[in-house]
Amino acid sequence: MPTVPALGRAAVFAGVVVFLLGQAFDTYWHARNVSFVPEPPRELWRIHLGIYLGAAMLTALGAWLLTRPGLRLAGLLMLLGGGTQLLGFGWDMYLHGQGRSKEIWHDLLWYGFGVVVLGVVRLEALIRRHPVAADMPKAV
């Protein structure tokens, strides 16, 4: 029976929230600044830190879930999705540093996030199908 500690489940959702807040900050920054002006790496890290941190958290959590019996598919989806995001971010950051951009690297961000979401949905389905006794409501 697959089990996920409450802290692990909270960490998965924290990774999703950090990623989405990072994306919101990036959108805010781009709305206030000229895009595709070469930025130094320090500024790129500052602007995109939430996105990178969220994707790294989700990738690491996916790798951890791969080690948990019954949760390997959810872990694989999160690992592949997060890795896809990190690949897109890394290459996009490199190109932005040179004042260039290609849409495919921005698109990988959302393709990867879609795969992460599939992993989270799979994880939640397994948790709901096999609740741990401590997570079940107590009878009055």
Order of helices and strands: HHHH
How many helical stretches? 4
* Coarse structural class: mainly alpha
Q: Kindly give the count of domains.
A: 1
Low-confidence segments, ≥5 residues, pLDDT <50?
133-137
The largest sheet, given as strand count, sense and whether it forms a barrel, is:
none
How many strand units?
0
Distance between the termini: 27 Å
Averaged pLDDT, please? Answer: 86
What fraction of the residues are assigned to beta strands by DSSP? under 5%
How much helicity do the residues have?
A: over 70%
* Rounded Rg: 17 Å
The dominant shape is elongated
Compile the SSE list and pairings.
Blueprint: H1 6-32, H2 41-66, H3 72-97, H4 103-129
Structural features, described:
By secondary structure, the chain is mainly alpha-helical. The protein has one domain. It has 4 helices and no strands. α1 (6-32) runs antiparallel to α2 (41-66), α2 packs antiparallel against α3 (72-97) and α3 (72-97) runs antiparallel to α4 (103-129). The protein is elongated. The chain crosses the membrane at residues 7-25, 45-66, 73-96, 108-127. This is DUF4383 domain-containing protein. It comes from Micromonospora parastrephiae.
